[in-house]
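Morning!

This is the sequence you dropped in the shared folder:
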Amino acid sequence: MFSVGSLVILGLLGLAALYWYALPLAALKPLKNLPEATGPPATRFAVLLPAHDEAAVIAQTVERLRALRYPADLYHIFVVADHCSDDTAALARQAGAIVHERNERPRSGKGAALTWLLERVLQDQSIQAVAVFDADTRVDADFLRIMDAHMRRGVPVVQGEHIIRNPQAGWFPRLTWAMFLVDNHYQNRGRVNLGFSAKHMGDSICFRADVLRAMGWGEGLTEDYQLRQRLLLQGIRILYDPRARGYGEAAPTWAAAQKQRARWISGARQAGRQFAPQLIRQGIRQKHWGMLEGGIQAYMPSYSTLTLMALILLGAQLITYRLWGIPSPALLFAWAGLGAFLFLYPFWGLAARRAPWRAYVAMLSGMVFILWRTWLAIRVRVQRRAMGWIRTAHGNSSS
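The structure's back. Tokens below.
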């Protein structure tokens, strides 16, 4: 009876592992049909920067954006200075941005600030596309040229490659940098090659303006995750183009990272409950794989949770085998194989990205992250109080 139960649990975890392994297998293929940035640019962009007390970085970000290799008359930079108590607005104006100062209503986070800004910016019907960056993002010079090529082909949403630029700031930024290398390869490239939707990473992303005029940005603890779900309900997949790069900062401290992750887990859980059933029903009815995957994903254990479950259960199998000789050696070997494959999962992604050795060293500390993230997920599930937006500190700024 014990062996039968062990086999059933192994099968369920194995199915979840197959889902996660479908992504790196699909990522082995090169991305197809990415347009070349040739010909004269034609798309008129609004570049949006939400900013809350970003005086330390906002001027440099605006200046870099103004230096993009794109005609100056075809894009404008808009900053929403959201309940700022410093010189963010003045410094952004001096650097050449069009600044909107938001002081009405209580501050509730990036989503509310972007929604408020879009209501004002998109009144200009000449704007054809919207690019969104964080206030500390450093953007490759050809970002808008690449997005222009997509917009001219009618692509509704394109996610660029978001890279962590402060791995030297500490253990957590270093691990986040390594994880983003894998995420961009697996969860963006792999998903797109399977016909799914890439992740909405909240930064370095571009929308056709009519999409945001119809749908808005949205609010909530994880408005980027919710917007991806809402896009899927409209049959819109997010494309991924790794040639368009933005470099942002990870939270430098354990305390800031903990608050950020707890907020994200809580928000993703709320969005999953809200959208997943409809996505699954509609995906089945319309035979839309992107919708179906978006709904199923909400019920899947995360890679962190799945790995921890597999390793704990493997340990239990080893103990019972030593004590009572069960399960069978073959089943025990299968459990060990599952644990090994899950452990190696991120390292194959680093190898595919030809990551430097320090990324592998950072990823070796991933088990600490897995334990920590799973503990956060459990805590978020058992606590009953509502979680609001929590400000996250960055290395060069205070937001």
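Headline: The CA atoms of residues 317 and 332 lie 7 Å apart.

More detail when I'm at my desk.
O.
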